[in-house]
# Entry
Amino acid sequence: MDRNDLNREDNARKKAILIHYAVVILVTVAAMALSFGAWSIFGHGHGRVKHEVSSETVSIVADIPEEIEEYETEENQTEETADSSGVIRQESASDAVTKPTEEDGSGTAGIMVVADGRTSSSGLIGWQTSSDGRKWYEVSKGACYYNGFRNIGDKVYYFDPEGYAVVSRWYAVKYQTGCYFDETGAYVADKDNSKLIALTFDGGPGEYTSNILDLLLQYEAKATFFVSGMSAEQAYGPNISRMAAEGHLIGSISYSNQDLSTASLDYIKEQYDRTDAIIALYNNGVGASLVRFPEGIYTPVMAQVTNRPNIMWDLESHDRETIYGHEVAMFIIDDMHEGAIVRLHDTQASAFEGLSEALPALKSEGYEFVTVEQMAASRGYKLENGVTYLGFTQNRVSSGTVNDR
# Structure
């Protein structure tokens, strides 16, 4: 082989090496770009996480803390262990304790000593599942995250004040800021809250409650039922157990479901206490979590006596004024708007028939059916006892007229 051949061969090797390194550099840059995109919710100062839809619907902007990092011990480390990501963990729970960066839970989660008796379900540091199915994260033996955000791996999670991860639901992180967390507990930055509907039912359970529950199950819809104690006593009480088991919210509309505007406060309290006792028979000892007054007739003092959130509505189905389900469906579909709270009655055949038509039509348009509590959380509101909630449309959120405070 002559010198020219050797030079050509040498040049070919050099070119191959250059191409190899160019490919490595390109792959590395691409990986960094993808990583940057995944973490683009975190910037300098505070990240801005936007839920944006048209100007006619909802636009919620949440401040997410910049520094959401795995906890790592730096001193006084005892019997250290490393998890799969290489993060050092302390064995001493008390050594791991830190406060959340924000008392209201809108910042980075703190670390607390587990105090409710829960123990590691796997025997390892990391994700755990409690006996009632709730997820939590053991940072070191006997210590867990609480009251704020944390990133674990490549996901962002939120832990409530008790140290449990928020899973498959909206959560009011701070005033007028709601965030959604999926079935794994991971934060979903682009979840749209503009097509949520809160279906509510008054006066049951009744003859059609079971049919309505079947319908809600078929269309993966959640609802809120305002139970009448008298109706539950008569024959249909077992439906309350099913409501709870299928993820619906249970409220009370008093025992008799009659106008209480001229009644004494003691009598009003007795009406709701009596209904609570009946609901508790079918709901593992738990009464109503919120109330509604018959026909929405109330005063702030009446609401305070119940010591529960009082819920109004802003879309009437007129199911007691017509026997035709199609008319009920048209009232609901034609008047539908973002953030709607719909009032129906599970004692009426027209309510069942109307929903049979309205649910598939609205679902095909992208609407999602949630409880009143979830509607409130999606707008950044935690329902408060003794407060009356008038609605959760964007107009009310913007004008500060969501409740009567």
Q: What stands out?
A: Residues 3-38 form the longest helix (36 residues). The first strand starts at residue 46 and ends at 52.
